[in-house]
Amino acid sequence: MRCDMKEIGYQIVYSGRKTLSLQVEETGELLVRAPYFVSKREIEAFVLKHQDWILRQKERLQAKKELPEPKEADLLRLQADLQQILSHYAPKMGVTYSAFKLTSAKKRLGSCQPKSGRLCFSKDLWAYPEHLLEYVAVHELAHLKYPNHAPAFHAFVRSFLPDADDRRKELRNFSFDAAENSFERSRM
Ligand SMILES: [Zn+2]
Q1: Which residues have CB under 8 Å from 84's CB, separation 6+?
Q2: Ligand 1 centroid to 180 CA: how many Å?
Q3: 30 alpha carbon to ligand 1 midpoint, in Å?
Q4: 112 shares its domain with 158
Q5: So what's the pLDDT on residue 6?
Q6: Do 76 and 57 lie in a common domain?
Q7: Residue 56's pLDDT is what?
């Protein structure tokens, strides 16, 4: 939910489960699944206790994506692609963002500050194919309406991208193969 990478930010999903669990999402976001009766303090302690594990997961996620440095033209194209996707989907989704910027975030592809309407996207997205970039952008736009990953959030995303679940899986497995330059023209 924030652009600052130093703190461990996380989102809490409450449900009828009996134990706490952690999940690092494909976007690098941390989800804490919690029973209804657990306090914020207990959750905070749980996250702190497992911060080594969390960092390892984030590193593992990153290791799959050893990207070469983008050229200026790659970043300009990413900027333009994002602009196009955001201005196409924001009105359709009934949300308003105030600004977006590219960041050097390595462990998180996108983030959203619902209060200010600011969106951040990792420069690494320059190497991602269009349909995955689109998923990340729509995912972050959806957070302007649902600041969590509750089922309603995913249903909302799916109502605009019916194959969103497939794209999420693909995003999780996406790896960049520099030798093949396979990323090169998958984007229009
Ligand atoms: Zn998210």
Answers
A1: none
A2: 30
A3: 9
A4: yes
A5: 45
A6: no
A7: 82
Give a yes or no: residue 138 inside a domain.
yes
Q: What does the pLDDT average to over 173-185? A: 43
pLDDT at 157 over 90: yes
Mean pLDDT of the chain: 84
Ligand 1 centroid to 142 CA: how many Å? 8
Q: Which residues contact 23 (CB under 8 A, 6 or more apart)?
A: 30, 31, 33
Residue 59 structural domain: 10-63
| 167: nearest Cα among 157, 180, 179 | 157
Same domain, 56 and 90: no
CATH number of the domain enclosing 167: 3.30.2010.10
In a domain, 181, yes or no: no
Judgement on whether residues 59 and 77 belong to the same structural domain of the protein = no
pTM over 0.85: no
Burial (0-12, 13-18, 19+ Cβ within 10 Å), 65: middle
Q: Examine the domain organization and report whether 121 and 167 are in the same domain.
A: yes
Same domain, 86 and 140: yes
Torsion angle (degrees, nearest 10) of CA 100, 101, 103, 107: 10
Torsion sign, CA atoms 140, 141, 142, 147: positive
Band (pLDDT 50/70/90 cuts) for residue 65 is: low
The protein residues having their C-beta less than 5 angstroms from ligand 1 (an ion) are 29
186 within domain boundaries: no
